[in-house]
Amino acid sequence: MKAPDFRYHRPTTVEEAIALLADAGDDGKVIAGGQSLVPIMNMRLAEPETLVDLTGVDELRTGSKTPSGACYGATTTHMMFEYELVPDVTRGLLPHAAAGIGYPAIRNRGTVGGSLAHSDSSAEWPTVMAALDAAVHVRSVRGARTVPVRELLLGFFTTALEPDELITEVEVPGLAPTARWGMYKMCRKPGEFAESLAVALGEAEPDGPWREVELWLGAAADRPLRLNSTEEAVRGEAFADLLPDRLVAPLAADLGQDLSAIDPTGRHALQLHAVTVQRALQSAERGDTA
Ligand SMILES: Cc1cc2nc3c(=O)[nH]c(=O)nc-3n(C[C@H](O)[C@H](O)[C@H](O)COP(=O)(O)OP(=O)(O)OC[C@H]3O[C@@H](n4cnc5c(N)ncnc54)[C@H](O)[C@@H]3O)c2cc1C
């Protein structure tokens, strides 16, 4: 199947783009890399009458450091993060996450703003940007606002964006020199979306004990999930000998699941998540992904 007909605009400024979006109303959509939207249109799951293509808006494809971290234009591609064509302020987490997204062709066109606006909890950027407490800058003809990623992602393919709003930038706080991170993506073969995706972020002295650890899980719910019970269960521990089985009960609590009533499929998924969280923690402790 192919997409139905649509009107196509390729503005060169943000001002023009938001004016076109406002004119299009509920029937308009932004297209960035097209790596999610085009397949959806071809399957006729989305039938926008107007597409506003962002690839001609150069001001959206930039990245620069700020006093507290960095700001990336919404159409910064996954590959630009992977090859550090934009500055990294996360001690390697952003390039590592980007390198795990799909295939080179996908990474060459897919954008950070598109991934966040698409809000697929199996995708890398929603979980990584939520873990980093990033925020998006949003513009429309009605004005500008800043939305933390944790508040932007409302559920499967659902965000807090209004139809006329455009993500213009993603602002990422920098990680402290003592910060450690680990990330682990479980998928059946490279290039696929995650079946489970864990990010561990923590503070520690060089070679010293963990002071704090924050855990985020993707591909487990309708949006990235902070694992409060699991964090509590591992607080103050070293992770080298941590076994996934220890994480199953706190993970079930984080996912709101009753372990005594869970079916084998649910149990299998829980076990996968326990392994990704264990590997993210151990990788953070070893510092081998940074
Ligand atoms: C085969 C395949 C494998 C993939 N594997 C992975 C993977 O392993 N991990 C992963 O994370 N992703 C994966 N993806 C998805 C890919 O990363 C997409 O690039 C990404 O999800 C969407 O980015 P995009 O720029 O292509 O957005 P588009 O497809 O252009 O748009 C997606 C949605 O976001 C909206 N949008 C886009 N930009 C903006 C903006 N600036 N402001 C407001 N709304 C906007 C669009 O209107 C649309 O609704 C895969 C895709 C394919 C086709």
Automatic annotation (TrEMBL):
Domain spans labelled FAD-binding PCMH-type: 1-177
Pfam family of the protein (one): FAD_binding_5
The UniProt record lists the keyword Transport: no
Transmembrane listed as a keyword: no
Alphabetized PROSITE patterns for the sequence: FAD_PCMH
Gene Ontology MF terms in the entry: FAD binding; oxidoreductase activity
Keywords, sorted A to Z: FAD, Flavoprotein, Oxidoreductase
SUPFAM superfamilies according to UniProt: CO dehydrogenase flavoprotein C-terminal domain-like (SSF55447), FAD-binding/transporter-associated domain-like (SSF56176)
PANTHER family per record: XANTHINE DEHYDROGENASE SUBUNIT C-RELATED
Protein's UniProt name: Carbon monoxide dehydrogenase
Organism of provenance: Streptomyces cacaoi
